[in-house]
Amino acid sequence: MYLTKYIGKVSLVTGFASLTFFATNIVLARKLEVEDFGHFSLIRSLVMLIPVLIFLGFSNSIIRFSKFNVISQYNIFKPIKKVSIFSVIFAVFIIGFVKYLYSLDMLDSLVLLGSSWILGRLWISNSLLRINEQYLTAQLLPFAWKFILLFLIIVLVLFDKVSLISALVVLFFSFIVSYFYGIRKEKQFKCGTKELSVKKIYLTGLSFFFVNLLSLFMSQFDKLSIAKLFSNESVAIYTGVSLIALTSFNLLGTSVGYVLMPHLSKNKIISKTEFILYVFIVPIILYLLFFNFGEIFNDLFYKNKYSNYPVIFQLTLVIAVLQYYNNLIQFSIGGIGSNKHVIQYLFLIIISSVIIVFTYILLKNTTLIGENRLVGLIISILIGWMFRVFFGGGLLIGKLLKARK
User: Based on CB atoms within 10 Å of each CB, which residue in 114, 135, 296, 347 is the most buried?
Assistant: First the structure.
């Protein structure tokens, strides 16, 4: 039960982080106007997406590089420094485009710039500690800001100072504190003296970068597209209704995946018991829990502020399950797949994204109005995830069967 041992430790962090961030969203959803909560949710979604783009997936490239090399022999911190400097320059251009796309103000842009860069840098620290099998500490690094954010939001509530501006300011400050903690923990990684170029690391994991980027884009596509096509109010409704299920399934999936990828990259096997547990038992139990009690949870936590959207809730619950399986598939391919398999998986993601766009265009040209248009977009997203999980699972099974021969 090797995986369960480490997943249990990682889940302590991700589970607590999930509850912490959920509590933060509950407070903000109650205290902020619907439009402001939707705006905050948009900024948060962008903060999740932009780090992968500006660092070009460097954190996962390190993991991929360690699969074929003894990374402790190299001076890994030298290329990390170079990438960190380049990412700042790249971030300025990306934030400028996002500012234009969503009509953001200067505060939004500064929060995005600082928070995105720090989060991307923390993921690099996370990769180094995962290679050292320090999974608990590694998982804490990119989630520490959530604990700090909740504390600061509670302080704002006590002084009755909760607003969109104050929420964005404490969000940024939370990342700053997390950064110094992450750098301190990163120094525990013992590296060698051999020279290592940035190019060599990137070439090892470049294809997987595109996989991660498009994966993250698909996971954030819902809020980003809703904000652009509808309004921040619609983003707030969608976020409020789907938050519990999506957060729970995604954090569980990533907890398993973060342990699974380096485990498989070292050619270690998974026991049948753990396979059945994480592929069947855990997701089925969680799905039945939310299917029967999810809307009751929403009514209780939001005081009926985001109630009466049963169709949206059931659709997002299915998407949450699909995203859980996608995490298992993606991390498994990252751990055992060759560059050829990663590229094949990349094409699946591209096709899935195209399916989402074209499905929505077809639905948009119908007579859907109001909430039904939002439901149409969610159905499009669901179809894209179904395609990706079905064929991605087939690709992974084919790889495993071929490896057994």
Answer: 135
- Name which of 144, 137, 123, 147 is nearest 55 in CA terms: 123
- 56, 208 Cβ separation under 8 angstroms: no
Which contacts of 293-297 are long-range, i.e. CB under 8 A and separated by 24 or more positions? 294/244, 294/245, 297/244
Task: Give the model confidence (pLDDT) of 299-344 as tens digits.
Answer: 888 877 777 888 899 999 999 999 999 888 887 876 676 667 777 7
Among residues 219, 249, 107, the alpha carbon closest in space to that of 164 is found at 107
The pLDDT, as a whole number, for residue 194 is 79
- Number of domains the chain is built from: 1
CB 251 within 8 A of CB 19: no
CB 354 within 8 A of CB 329: no
Q: How many CB atoms lie within 10 A of CB 250?
A: 18
Which two structure tokens, joined as six digits, stand for 92? Answer: 């300025």
Cβ proximity of 18 and 248 under 8 Å: yes
